[in-house]
Automatic annotation (TrEMBL):
Species whose genome carries this gene: Mesopusillimonas faecipullorum
Gene: pbpC
Lineage top rank: taxon: Bacteria
Pathway named in the protein's UniProt entry: Cell wall biogenesis; peptidoglycan biosynthesis
Lineage, uppermost ranks: Bacteria, Pseudomonadati, Pseudomonadota, Betaproteobacteria, Burkholderiales
Catalysis performed (reactions): [GlcNAc-(1->4)-Mur2Ac(oyl-L-Ala-gamma-D-Glu-L-Lys-D-Ala-D-Ala)](n)-di-trans,octa-cis-undecaprenyl diphosphate + beta-D-GlcNAc-(1->4)-Mur2Ac(oyl-L-Ala-gamma-D-Glu-L-Lys-D-Ala-D-Ala)-di-trans,octa-cis-undecaprenyl diphosphate = [GlcNAc-(1->4)-Mur2Ac(oyl-L-Ala-gamma-D-Glu-L-Lys-D-Ala-D-Ala)](n+1)-di-trans,octa-cis-undecaprenyl diphosphate + di-trans,octa-cis-undecaprenyl diphosphate + H(+)
PANTHER family referenced in this protein's UniProt entry, alphabetically: BINDING PROTEIN TRANSPEPTIDASE, PUTATIVE-RELATED (PTHR32282), PENICILLIN-BINDING PROTEIN 1C (PTHR32282:SF15)
InterPro entries, alphabetized: Beta-lactam/transpept-like, Glyco_trans_51, Glycosyltr_51/Transpeptidase, Lysozyme-like_dom_sf, PBP_1c, PBP_C, PBP_transglycosylase, PCN-bd_Tpept
Protein name (record): peptidoglycan glycosyltransferase
Amino acid sequence: MVLAMSGGQAEPAPSPDALPSFQAARQAYRASDLIVLDRQDHVLQRVRQDFQGRRGDWLALEDISPALLQAVLVSEDRRFHEHHGVDVPAIAAAAWQWVANGPRRGASTVSMQLVGMLDEHLRAYGARTPAQKVRQVVQAWALERRWDKDEILEAYLNLAPFRGELVGVDSAARVLFQKHAAGLNARESALLAAMLRSPNVAAGLLARRACGVLEAMDKPEACDNLTLAAQSALRRSAAPFYDGADLAPHAARRVAASVHLSPSAGDEGVRVRSTLEGDLQRAVLSSVQRRLGSLNAGVGVDAAVVVLNNATGDVLAYVGSAGAASTAPWVDHAQALRQAGSTLKPFLYAQAFDELRLTPASLLDDSPVGLATASGLYTPQNYDERFSGWVTSRTALAASLNIPAVRVLTMVSPEAFHDRLLRLGLPLTEEGGFYGYSLALGSADVSLLSLTNAFRALANGGRTSPVRWLADKAQDAAVAGPPVFSESAAWMVGDVLSDRQARVRTFGMDSPLETTIWSAVKTGTSKDMRDNWCLGWSSLYTVGVWVGNSAGDAMREVSGVSGAGPIWQDIMNWLGQREMMTQPAMPEGVVQQRVSFEPSFEPPRLEVFMAGTQQSVVRAVARQDKPLPEREDQAIAEQKMQGGSLAVGRPRIAGPVDGTLIALDPDIPPANQRLQLRAANVPQGQEVYWLAGTQTIGQGSVSYWLPMPGRQVLTLTDKDGTVLDRVSIQVRGATLAVAP
């Protein structure tokens, strides 16, 4: 047995069997990226997993430019096809040069360098010891007996370090020269060959060495301006892979987290088949970029989109940001927590239908309401003279009216509604009492992904189940999760949200909520227009869209129907072009009944009911308004001090009450958000006037005013300007650009 000396101790020379076969070396190779495929096996995205080196795919010799093969052999091993692993004349020449001039260059052949890559005992960061040199020679001879020359050269080019963290010819070509290795020309090949000897030298020295390679290749004319070419290539050392798909960066990270690198990997690295559809992903990206470009929403507007398969929960498209147009392109906005706005209302009505508290024909009072809470009087507002008074549940939900939703929550209770939202998978961080009645208007923070999956429960007969990221043909059957709502309640909510006539009072007949297929949809806008949403479903798919910005700043004149709505419409119509989708069949627990209303504030219609709750006539009961207690504010007290007197029944402001907090709803057109000003105890024939600050805004015991954001002092006066009453209110929301 041959012995080698290392550190004064003898160690056995390696057995030739210690080297892997070519096939084993190729199978052991791993690209540094996880390659995420769509469900049709097309590449969507590369996700970096290994940060020890940046490796591309393993390339066969026929996929590498002949110019590079020539350049490498000229530079590293001119007698490669003649020796058997060790170039004896080259070793002798190197030894003579070492004696004469000191160490200049080694005489390692390609085979000797390759065994240094394959054998961990030979991986030295400095000069190898004599024992390692002996081992390297022995292993190179063994390698040449087991591998053929093409296999040695192919493995060498795929395992050799080129520049910085770039390992292998695929990564070097696609990063430094932004092309595939098959297309490398002589100049590029010479530069890469020169890097093999000194991977991290400066551009000038690299160019001089590459010029020597070109002269040896009989191409001296290619040396012109080679330094500039070297500088240009080195500036790209951290560039993305050429021709690397970049369709789903955020989804790919979710997929990578799901697999934990467990799938078997071939010589081209770990490839994972996701649930995403490449064509749909492209269509979603195109819509996002086109629609955001047309918004006048200020700087930094961004978007996120989720498309789910109703039956399986497969994530079919997933856009976390607007990409290059985003101020934070790597932030996954589909996972960020944002205020839900009106998007929680469908779940509230579904719960009320389930508990038989309401039917779509039930009447709700759309008039001011004050609810006592631990932090004071909660007074939600929905300002539109056409909406005041009685409305049906169908109209209240489809037209997204706030006051009726709060009244429904008083029936259900915030705690019970909070529990139902948790069962839907929404990530609420506080208890129901924390949100209180504002939970009906979406004061809780949710993510787009969780909210879209919650809407999918309504599309899926009230049942919820997790989303899926990994494609598995064996699991394509429908997934039935636990029921959160009855099938009947979920279907009725879908019927309401698909009713074009019911939402026309808020959104009009022609809005971005109309699609070419049957669909149910709900918009939402958070406080101060920071976030706007549009979520809905067809019989096969659920689509959720968020538009906002990373910093959470308010946007100008953008709401759920104008910001997120057009993107949602584009996607639904795109899906409708490939598959016809109609309304799901009515469940057995739902019946239809023609119903009329007395008085006839809504026309008679064919309505849907839970079996056993149907009615043919719905009558409104006259409201008994209780007079508010007499109140003396500072203005009236000052009048008393000046000798004035207050008679019983003096005209006063009955609404809004002092201290009212008003929130403008961006989902409702500005012209429909006028605050009703009501005065009590006004004698017949007496003229009274309304002032906001010093500006006259109305006349008469009942008037309507478009509220402007900020603290507003409303004053009631007689025709002589005498102050009769005064209240202070706070208006929140963006300025509405409409003439009062």
